[in-house]
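Study both lines:
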Amino acid sequence: MKSVTPKNKNVYYQGNYWNDLPEVREYMCKNLTGDKDKWWIADIQDRFCPKPFTFENALFLCDGNGWLSREFIHKKIVKHAVAFDWSTELLLEAEEKRGQRDIHYFQADVNTITFPDNTFDLIVNNAALHHVQFLNRLNLILSRALKPEGFFINFDYVGPRRNQYSLSHWKKIIAFNKKLPFEIRHEALHYPHLPTMLAADPTEAIHSDEIIKTMQRYFNLLEQHDTNGGLAYHLLTHNKKASSLQPSKRKPIVKAILVADRAMTAEKKVPVLFSYFIAQPKKIDSASELMIKKYQAYENIREKLSSLLLGSYSLFEFLTLVAFSLVRTIKIKKFVAKFL
């Protein structure tokens, strides 16, 4: 079965994101590690690396231009790294920047990749799992590739699939945005358009809402630290005003948005969008093998049906895509008719 993959490297991190703002960075650090000045990588180093190069062999999922694997080696967390990505362009950049670091880069599709059992003592994911189509398959392979006492470290988007937020959630975002001062009010705020998303990057948040649930089949979740975002992410991402506003004016407004983000998440008025979690592989016994086969059979059938239904995973998604296709066809016919 052909897997869904990004079209090119341009789908990765374009424009201004909420975590580019220092106030948001502090908010995320506080949520993830308890210290506003400590990012999760430093947290891993402090808590899990009693000596340099504690981890002998590490795997980095969808590592892009290699910045993450380089940082883990530079900080002496990892001695040897293996990293892959779908984009050959990004991998060329990774090779150029590798220097003398002990990193092996290679090109691969995350949906079809495989590894020998008990190969790594650390696996690191930074925002890759929400692009994975065959999520069950990958988690099973990673759990087996990780040594029994190894760690699976994740930081990822875990919000609604393909960013299709509930109507009540989206109304809260719109209402809060209208109350913001003009100098930071988001003027380009719009609901994610499913047909456009599928055309631009069919992998984006493809099964993001199933990441934690799927992980827990094959890993023991030791820690989970949510960093929210259900309100603040939308108001501050791709907001040109926020990124250009003078810090003295921006800081109090952004902090007020983040206070509301925390409160609305705690009250379950908006969903958690981002989370950081640490896990270790479960022992798969003979009784679990049958369930594994069932989960994989379900995933295979789901993806086969999706390939037949324009890439949709629900009746609503399918009807949305069909309606969009019909409207576009009618518009094209009317346009052509003008010249006939």
Notes: The longest helix spans residues 286-308. The domain at 9-287 is CATH 3.40.50.150 (Rossmann fold). The mean pLDDT is 93. The radius of gyration is 21 Å.
